[in-house]
Amino acid sequence: QVQLVESGGGLVQPGGSLRLSCAASGIIFSNVVMGWYRQAPGKQRELVARIGSRGSAYYLESVKGRFTLSRENAQNTVALQMDSLKPEDTAVYYCNGHDVYANVDYWGQGTQVTVSS
């Protein structure tokens, strides 16, 4: 059974930082492109960042320079370091894995990030 387990969400003031982690199990990690999506109230889910097995990364334009996605292949984990957080970053953040050979997506349960004074 494939599982993606997220951690690290919470409440932070504007300008603060959070680090989200996602641990994957039940997959061949090197075959999977990993990423983070988010969904804010009243909005559609959007891709925040994703990273391939060899480290090539994509970032949503609005988070470039503030968020950093890293991949620890030996531990089957990815982490999203979020700095200079803004209220508009408030959302439920979901870990995503895409198996490039099976063309299958896997999702975590989501973790709440709230940026507010």
Account of the protein in words:
With 117 residues, this protein is mainly β. It has no helices and eleven strands. Strands 2, 4, 5, 6, 9, 10 and 11 form a seven-stranded mixed sheet that branches. Strands 1-3-8-7 form a four-stranded antiparallel sheet, with no helix packed on it. A hairpin with a 4-residue loop joins strand 9 and strand 10. The chain is globular and about 45 Å long.
Shape: globular
Helix content: under 10%
Largest sheet: 7 strands, mixed
- The portion of residues forming beta strands comes to over 45%
Number of E-state strands: 11
Radius of gyration (Å): 14 Å
Query: What's the average pLDDT?
Result: 95
SSE-based structural type: mainly beta
Alpha carbon gap, first and last residue: 40 Å
SSE run: EEEEEEEEEEE
- Flag low-confidence runs: none
Number of helices: 0
Concise synopsis of the structure shown:
The chain has 117 residues and is mostly beta strands.
Give a topology summary.
Blueprint: E1 3-7, E2 10-12, E3 18-25, E4 32-39, E5 46-51, E6 57-59, E7 67-72, E8 77-82, E9 91-99, E10 104-107, E11 111-115
Parallel strand pairs: 2-11
Antiparallel strand pairs: 1-3, 3-8, 4-5, 4-9, 5-6, 7-8, 9-10, 9-11
